[in-house]
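Researcher: Go.
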Amino acid sequence: MKIVKPPKLNIGDTIGIVASSLPLLPSFRENYEKGKKVIQELGFKIKEGETIGKIRWWAAGTPKEVSEDINSMFADKNIKAIMAQTGGYSASSVLEYLNYELIANNPKPFIGMSDVTNFHLAMLTKCQMVGFHMDDVLHINQHFFKTFLMTDKPAGIIRPLTEWEQWREGKAQGHLIGGNLHLLTNLIGTPYFPSLEFFEGAIFFWEEVGEPLHNIARYLTHLKYAGVLDRISGMLIGKITYIKPPREKEIIAPDVKELVLEVLKDYKFPIMSNLDFGHFTVNIPMPTGIKVSFDTAKKQLNFLESPVI
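Model: Structure:
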């Protein structure tokens, strides 16, 4: 699969903001306005989509309304990138209404994480387009925004912001594919999940929030049964936060490292964990389809190409 990279951003460009999952709730407003200010301080203009201000259940409109907002952002020649205001729960219902031919003919960075995993994988599958798994409008890191979106030079070696961990020793090189673990697993068997061939030699990355350990085991086992884990050359694990305890008080649960290594015991690929991406953390961008290498002994992640041209 040849990966489609969008053009890099330049000062003065306009960035569109959409509520692609959760609506802009009153409790989000303060951080949302701060995020808009950061975008403007970086030198960009802003255009808010029709979904900003709409509320329907746990979404910013019906799936069709949300898709129309996203489609219109891709159709607008003045919009050079699209940012999700935050994640949520409803993105998978939007996928069937997106105009993938329109998106493929107007490649732009689509930026966000968590529920936005659905859009990244769907656009990769349908349009072969890079997905920008990184901070949304509510949480923007200016340095990473500039490094990954405003230059066509590879980001190179990224320094850890916290203590990264070696869970299985080794080195690996390949293209990135991943996102939120339970969301990407939910897409298996749909038209929006990449073919197994795309996982050949890939670096699989994932993060998770608010799940019990037995669910994390289920998701990894699902990936095993689907043949994904047979293909990859390495695994990068981000932050795993708010792990729910078992309902049954008598159960003695393993720690997350023990669990993951048990599920993955039949594989030899290297694993590095606790990287700086996921929920409630600064997100090092993990652009899907882009080549990286990593070395667990050195706790080193190296971006070998730029996600933009």
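Model: The chain has two domains: 14-149, 156-303.
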